[in-house]
Amino acid sequence: MTTSPHAFTPDTSPFPKDHPKVAFGRIGVLIVNLGTPEGTDYWSMRAYLKEFLSDRRVIEVNRIVWWFVLNAIVLTKRPGPKGKDYASIWNNERDEGPLKTITRDQAEKLAAHLAGRDPRIVVDWAMRYGKPPIAERIAALQAQGCERILIVPLYPQYSAATTATVCDKAFDALKAMRWQPIIRVAPPWHDDPVYIDQVAASLEQHLAALDFEPEVILASFHGVPKSYLLKGDPYHCQCAKTARLLRDRLGMSEEKLRLTFQSRFGTEEWLQPYTDMTVKALAEGGVKRLAIFNPGFVADCLETLEEIGGENREIFLHHGGEKFAAIPCLNATPEGMRVLEAVVERELKGWVG
Questions:
Q1: Which of 54, 174, 265, 323 has its CA 20 to 30 A from that of 62?
Q2: Which domain covers residue 118, as residue numbers?
């Protein structure tokens, strides 16, 4: 998984002649995204959903009640339909989900960019759920001599259900290590000028390529239960700030560029307004041309390709809309890489000159 490390030979001259061979002196960068199942079949989907939905950061309900709901209902009914959804976006050539393909590409391009900065840097990638696991990749970086590791959760907006659970898993790995590498965790970049500018620039490029001008543009972020906000999670506030800064950069009003939240499930109230309900209301209200982009996702995945590009497209057209565009995420495009490069270079300061 690790990108090919560049030529670097640490100075071992101070070591005694009988000193055991040991790798040291390198700096690791580990980018981490959410995860993807290993296949679209029932059992692959079930394993992935079980790991994901067993995370107490993701589902904050009574554990006894949730254990029953998860095992008796969710893991019985959802793997089949979700497998079909994943099959519709699956990278058949590599036999993997698109999130894995894109994250690998991001890591490789990031490594190429950093090659000229410092030959000690090694870039790797992992997934919070599924493969490759965080603990495995931290161990791999340490085995190559990385005494310092920067972990970059690939979430521009912080949430306990995303960024924090990446940290939990990384720290769990450290607990099992006698010689722990020094760890830094990149903070969220929801208001970083480079991020705002590159998301806006990418949106402008895609809008210019359309054969229509959207009457409304939705900035759709992944939702979380409203109770998480009330418990102190800053996610909603950071999403709102990102949307406001994008409006300022693009010169758009709140009516033109609207903030919404997607991907809810269960009966609990989630952050609002809901993307699917907004799409339906806009179509029924006479809006004929709509575009949706996902500034909270650094890579296209099930939630952007199938949920936005498929389900919400169908909702809009079914209720009277005529023109719909699902705008791609930044992915490993030049705009997307500028953001990741800026975040990583900023957080490596002090370790890299």
A1: 174
A2: 26-188+334-347
